[in-house]
Amino acid sequence: MSSPPLPERDYHAAADRVIAAIESQADLWLQQGVIDIDTHRSGGLLELAFPDGSKIVVNKQPPLQELWLAARQGGFHFRCQADRWLDTRDGAEFFARLSEQLSAQAGVTLALAAPT
Questions:
Q1: What is the CATH number of the domain that holds 58?
Q2: Rg (Cα) of the chain, in Å, rounded?
Q3: Region 38-52: what's the mean pLDDT?
Q4: Which of 36, 37, 81, 100 has the smallest number of CB atoms closer than 10 Å to its CB?
Q5: Rounded distance between C-alpha atoms, residue 66 and residue 87, angstroms
C-alpha cells in the first residue's frame, strides 16, 4: 500500500537529506582512507565516480516524488513511505540497496544508513 503524496516542500527536503547524507559519507570515506569516490552534484542529481571509472547516479524525480538510483547492476526507483525510501518494485529500503550497489562497484564493503 502506498502513502499519499508528500507536500512538495517535504518531498524536496526529504530527498535533499538523502543526497546530502550520501555526499557526507563519501567525504568521510575519503578522509578515513577507505575509498576515493568523487562526488558531483548538479541540482537534484548526484553522481558518484569510482576509481575504476564506473559511476552511480542518484537523482530526484519530483513529478513522481521518487528518488532514482542508477548503478552498474541496474536502475531502481524509490518512494518515501512513512519516512523511509522504499523500492517501488520490491520494497527494499534505499540505503540498503545503495550500500549493496556501492559495495559491488567499489569491491569493498561500504554501508550507508538513513540520516537521523
A1: 3.30.920.10
A2: 14
A3: 96
A4: 36
A5: 9
